[in-house]
Design goal:
The complex is a heterodimer.
Chain A: E1 5-10, E2 13-18, H1 24-41, E3 45-49, H2 58-73, E4 77-81, H3 85-93, E5 102-104, H4 107-116
Parallel strand pairs in A: 2-3, 3-4, 4-5
Antiparallel strand pairs in A: 1-2
Helix pairs in contact in A: 1-2
Chain B: H1 6-14, H2 16-30, H3 40-60, H4 75-90, H5 95-103, H6 106-116, H7 121-164, E1 169-172, E2 175-182, H8 186-203, E3 207-215, H9 220-235, E4 239-243, H10 247-255, E5 264-266, H11 269-280
Helix pairs in contact in B: 1-3, 1-6, 2-3, 2-6, 3-4, 4-7, 5-7, 6-7, 8-9
The chains are: A alpha/beta, B alpha/beta.
Chain lengths: ~120, ~290
């Protein structure tokens, strides 16, 4: 069975792909895995791809905010990419507009931004 | 045909033109004639169509039953009626005018009835009561029908306005704009957000200009809608610029305590476009000075 979320290393950037059927436990595990990988791989950039995510609730929204906050603390710039319109509207409706997180249209946009800063 | 209504039916057949004239005169007196909307000829034609259908219907209904305008016997009258309500609703006649329009039929018919049945007060009373019942039911129906007709017109116009008023336009590669016009209520704000976010995906846009030059009033609610739209745009990975903020709107927003936070604002769409170009890496340069 494929993992609900996978972490890949692309150059110096960690790419996190989240699948739609992700559960609350998966997401807590992901938080742990990601923070450890950032430190062990000395990553300076993290891209969280949520294009597959069709439904979000306050919990997922909070975890997304936490993931970027943790990465930032570990000196990795974090981009959330590929958010669907419906997901963006729901998050805004819930009042969770992820104020501390950076966003980009797609993975390539985020990689370009990270490269421009010499982090990828 | 029930015996009780014979006289009214006969009256409507024999004195048809007179009743139309009197009905018309009563409407004039009641102030629901609307000469600004309908010519005398058109009004008279409407009245005689309606009265003819009414007279035909009277001959068919059974008065011992309760008056049910939705019943089969009334179908001709309902048809004649719907034509008249449609033109009246479209031209902006008020519901009370429509009701008075019908009720004005009572007076001429009562007058005629009185002339004919003066010697039999019992019958006079009976026929007048029955006729009153029918006209009342008819007026009630016309009122309901009229309001339904108007609601339909309003709904149609609203839908048309909705479609017209939220076009997302691509200004340049990766730059979109949505010019907002009129009022921005919750429903339209939702529509605007949906259209805009979908267009961002479609065009892979990085900057969107939300232009509020045409928005009549900016209150706290409108400001909230704008900021939420900007927040959703940011979540998608694009940036929003709110343009068309007039000096007056700027003052209002500050007085209302609206904090736009990180959202970029520009007074004009021109300034916003320059900023958008800067962000996506374009610049406008003058080729040569063409002015003399």
């Amino acid at each position: 069975m494929p993992e609900a979320a996978s972490i890949y290393k692309v150059d110096k950037v960690l790419l996190v792909a989240i699948r739609d059927n992700i559960t609350d436990t998966d997401i807590i595990n992901l938080q742990e895995d990601l923070s450890e990988r950032i430190v062990s791989e000395k990553a300076r950039g993290v891209v969280i791809d949520i294009a597959a995510l069709e439904i979000v609730d306050t919990f997922v929204g909070r975890i997304l905010a936490q993931l970027s906050a943790i990465s930032r603390l570990l000196a990795a710039e974090t981009y959330i990419v590929g958010m669907r319109p419906a997901v963006a509207m729901t998050l805004v409706e819930l009042g969770m507009d992820l104020p501390g997180s950076k966003t980009a249209l797609s993975l390539s946009h985020a990689l370009r931004a990270l490269k421009a800063k010499g982090l990828a | 045909m029930t015996a009780a209504m014979t006289e009214v039916s006969r009256l409507l057949q024999e004195d048809f033109e007179e009743v139309v004239d009197a009905w018309f005169a009563t409407q004039k007196r009641e102030g629901v004639r609307r000469p600004d909307l309908f010519s005398d000829r058109e009004s008279r034609r409407q009245l005689s169509d309606l009265l003819r259908a009414f007279a035909d219907t009277l001959g068919r209904i059974d008065l011992s039953q309760s008056v049910d305008v939705d019943a089969e016997e009334w179908s001709d009258l309902r048809l004649a009626l719907s034509e008249i309500t449609l033109v009246r609703a479209e031209r902006g006649v008020a519901p009370w005018e429509m009701t008075t329009f019908v009720l004005a039929l009572k007076q001429p018919v009562f007058g005629k009835l009185n002339e004919r049945l003066r010697d039999t007060p019992d019958r006079l009373l009976q026929e007048a009561a029955d006729f009153g019942r029918i006209v009342d039911a008819f007026a009630m129906h016309i009122n309901e029908h009229f309001i339904a007709e108007r609601d339909e017109i309003i709904e149609r116009q609203r839908a048309e306005m909705m479609e017209l008023s939220t076009p997302v336009v691509q200004l340049w590669e990766r730059v979109l704009t949505i010019p907002l016009i009129g009022t921005l209520d919750s429903m339209r704000a939702q529509e605007v957000m949906e259209n805009l976010l979908n267009a961002i995906v479609e065009h892979q846009a990085e900057v969107v200009i939300v232009d509020i030059t045409g928005v009549r009033v900016v209150d706290t609610q409108v400001a909230q809608h704008l900021l939420r739209t900007a927040a959703a745009v940011r979540l998608m990975g694009a940036e929003a610029i709110i343009s068309g903020i007039s000096p007056k709107i700027a003052q209002t927003m500050v007085e209302l305590g609206v904090d736009v936070g990180e959202v970029t604002t520009r007074p004009s769409i021109r300034a916003a476009l320059a900023e958008a170009f800067r962000r996506v890496g374009f610049a406008i340069t003058r080729v040569e000075d063409t002015r003399a």
